[in-house]
Amino acid sequence: MTSNSGNGIGQITWVNRRYISTKNIKKNLSLVIWGSNLTSQVGNDRFTKQVSNMVKLPFYQFSIMVGVILSDGWIIIPRKNRVNARFGFKQALVHTDYVWHVFNIFSHYCKRVPYLLRSTRAGKTLYGLEFVTRVLPCFTELHTLFYNEGKKRIPNNIYELLTPEALAHWIMGDGTSCKNSGITLCTDSFSIEDIVRLMNVLILRYDLKCSTHTPREVSKYNLYI
Q1: Would you say residue 68 lies in a domain?
Q2: Nearest alpha carbon to residue 131 among 213, 192, 53, 42
Q3: Global pTM?
Q4: Closest of 107, 135, 145 to residue 51, by C-alpha
Q5: Residue 210: CA atoms inside 13 Å, Cβ hemisphere, count?
Q6: Could you say which of 99, 122, 151 is where a domain stops?
Q7: Are 98 and 72 in contact (CB under 8 A)?
Q8: Residue 129's domain is classified under what CATH number?
Q9: Residue 173 in contact with residue 67, Cβ under 8 Å?
Q10: At what angle do helices 59-70 and 137-146 cross, to 10 degrees?
Q11: Would you say 168 and 67 are in contact if contact means Cβ atoms under 8 Å apart?
Q12: Segments in the chain forming alpha helices (H)
């Protein structure tokens, strides 16, 4: 709610149950790229339903999330009685810098900062860094794209989704440089049909030479560029 004062004070605006003067606020008509000015929402209260429905993923953030989902990112609907999903990402502590980099890109959608996790595998204690977003409808759209009956899959429109930003973050999250040359991408969680679909995009869109390797099991494949 706003009102104009006749005593030269300027416009008075009702914001968050307080009256503030906008006399000294300068108008800025500069063009701003959508998504470039998102601020962190860490520590803020839960979004209302109306606000949650208004939250969208700009193209840049959407592309990066696609790449992270192809690696170690995930999208889940946390409870059976919930409709919407949340995004999460975790990597080993040695990749702390990258986890914080990704978190800073998505901090607008998060309520808390990344946290330390400890697990045990083969008698060895492992440490990782993880963050999760709020539960929002914009992540539900991605969940529908990338999951079928709870299992991660490659969408049919991956050619359009695998932008240069998505490819870069896919490699950052799941790529390993080979001793001789090239990069190996850990795709053993995908079916061979999904891997072939990814290979087609890398060949046709990016003119890359690709093949598959069998690291452990005959039925599992890694993608080699």
Answers
A1: yes
A2: 42
A3: 0.82
A4: 135
A5: 20
A6: 151
A7: no
A8: 3.10.28.10
A9: yes
A10: 40
A11: yes
A12: 49-54, 59-70, 96-106, 137-146, 158-161, 164-174, 192-204
